[in-house]
Write a structure and sequence with these properties.
Elements: H1 2-11, H2 18-21, H3 24-43, H4 47-59, E1 64-65, E2 76-81, E3 85-90, E4 101-106, E5 111-122, E6 127-135, E7 148-155, E8 161-166, E9 204-207, H5 221-234, H6 238-241, E10 245-250, E11 255-257, E12 263-266, H7 269-286, E13 294-299, H8 316-327, H9 334-342, E14 345-348, E15 352-353, E16 375-378, H10 394-406, E17 411-413, H11 428-432, E18 437-442, E19 444-445, E20 453-456, H12 457-473
Parallel strand pairs: 1-2, 4-13, 4-14, 14-18, 15-19, 16-17
Antiparallel strand pairs: 2-3, 3-13, 5-6, 5-10, 6-9, 7-8, 7-10, 11-12, 12-20, 16-18
Bound molecules: manganese (II) ion (MN) (2 copies).
């Protein structure tokens, strides 16, 4: 019997549960690690807020803007690109052209944006409403009849920026897209879920007290009062909204979930969970004299294909690596830049779909990731026969597994659902175009892209540990 057990142990692969496989002390550290993460999630509901939060944190730790260095030098640098993307680097001992270690995540999340000209007065009900346009892959019905907060920025013609946050403080109002009552939803309830809420029905209640003028009857009094209130509070006119970026997101803070508090529930964990853990890993590397230069990238627009100026397809990725070559007085020719990228290693830091106890049928359990089993290495993503995926090389993946084992990182592999069940992609394939080794690496979530995504504290901590091991050892 003993022999059989030995052979089983030696030959069979069995993913390990963090809560069983690690020491009580490590579990305590893991639970504590999520405290900072919850704060980050609660403050960072938009990509701009994630950048601002990160800036504050790294400036306090003496990172300097690489564009303001002049002839000075620093080992700790960052650059913000058009307020939409960001890179942070800790310069290592070896030349940049030998390759850098990059953890790249995205800081945008599915949400409901206001239209550029959002405000209207519903004549029948005499209610002021805001029109919306959803962003990313959402289930529209989830956004109905739930408290939403409004976040964003209005840039005025003179360049002044007005930051707006309404709905996060206890004293703030929140916003609601009222759903239809079940009593009158006979027709709605017979429709398929993708159709029973139309985008045009996702309007938000804004106000109902009309503008009053003692002498005259006021036309469009509800809308006028809405504009009057906005003017009083922010000095913004309706025309200023045309260029604004205003986003509706679930109101409220991230918090513990589960009676044992082993989970974090909150909005936007795809992918701010990777943004936060990679930043913390980099800040730890700062304290050590690392061999390779380590870089964290935070990108925008992953949820809609990684295009636009702050997306992973933007020239910013290459340009920042060129900045690093310049900083170290290395050859900044296109040829050397290309070689630098080819020599570099990238973790495409994004989430995977954990197997959901309510919906196990969409997964193939043997190849799906499980919450609480550590960070997930995803060799490929894609759909319909791996189309549109980055497929990491065996060599790169095996090297990482070796490092994770060595550094006692809880890890597992994952795939996005059963074959042909659906699928999806990440920024991995865009970064692989530069010739770097790239693999998807991040935690699994339950209820991804919903208003309240669920993550295991074991996986949040393991992800941080994995990124740190990658920075130090690759
Ligand atoms: Mn993602
Ligand atoms: Mn996503």
């Amino acid at each position: 019997m003993k022999k059989t057990e030995d052979i089983r142990k030696k030959l069979m692969y069995k993913p390990k549960n963090f809560w069983i496989d690690t020491t009580k002390n490590e579990q305590k550290i893991a639970l504590k690690f999520s405290e900072g993460y919850k704060k980050y999630l609660s403050c960072c509901k938009t990509e701009r807020q994630a950048i601002r939060f990160t800036l504050e944190e790294i400036k306090a730790k003496s990172f300097v803007n690489i564009e303001e260095l002049g002839t000075k030098s620093s080992r700790f640098v960052y650059r913000v690109f058009k307020n939409k993307a960001m890179a942070i680097a800790v310069i290592g001992k070896s030349p940049i052209s030998k390759g850098v270690n990059i953890v790249a995540s995205h800081i945008d999340a599915p949400r409901v944006d206001l239209k550029q000209n959002p405000l209207y007065e519903d004549k029948e009900t005499q209610i002021g409403m805001l029109r919306t346009h959803y962003y990313g892959g959402i289930k529209k019905y989830q956004w109905m009849s739930t408290p939403l907060a409004l976040h964003g920025v209005v840039v005025k013609q003179n360049g002044d920026r007005v930051h707006i946050t309404v709905g996060e403080s206890e004293l703030d109002p929140v916003f609601i897209m009222p759903d239809l009552l079940p009593h009158l939803a006979k027709d709605q309830m017979t429709k398929v879920a993708s159709e029973f809420i139309q985008a045009g029905q996702m309007n938000v209640v804004f106000n109902s007290i009309p503008y009053s003028d003692e002498k005259d009857e006021v036309k469009d009094a509800i809308k006028l009062q809405a504009l009057q209130m906005i003017w009083e509070k922010y000095s913004i006119r309706e025309e200023d909204l045309l260029s604004a970026e205003l986003q509706l997101v679930p109101a409220g803070k991230a918090r513990d979930a589960g009676f044992d508090k082993s989970f974090v529930v909150g909005y936007g964990q795809d992918d701010r969970i990777c943004a936060y853990t990679s930043l913390q890993a980099l800040l730890d590397v700062k304290e050590i004299d690392a061999n390779k230069t380590c870089v964290v990238f935070l990108f925008d627009k992953e949820e809609v294909g990684s295009d636009s100026v702050g997306g992973a397809t933007s020239v910013f990725f290459k340009d920042f690596i060129a900045d690093l070559l310049k900083l170290k007085n290395e050859d900044i020719s296109e040829n050397n830049l290309r070689k630098t990228l080819i020599n570099s290693a990238v973790l495409s830091a994004d989430v995977n779909a954990g197997i959901n106890p309510n919906f196990p049928a969409v997964h193939e359990a043997q190849n799906a990731c499980h919450l609480g089993y550590g960070v997930v290495l995803t060799k490929y993503t894609g759909a319909r026969g791996k189309s549109g995926s980055n497929d990491a090389t065996s060599e790169f993946m095996a090297k990482l597994i070796h490092i994770f084992e060595d550094e006692k990182v809880s890890w597992q592999t994952g795939s996005l659902g059963k074959v042909d069940e659906g699928g999806g992609g990440t920024i991995a394939k865009f970064l692989a175009m530069h010739g770097c080794d790239v693999i998807d690496c991040g935690p699994g979530l339950l209820g991804m892209h919903s208003l309240y995504e669920l993550a295991s504290k074991a996986d949040i901590y393991s992800t941080y540990k994995a990124y740190k091991a990658f920075f130090m050892r690759v």
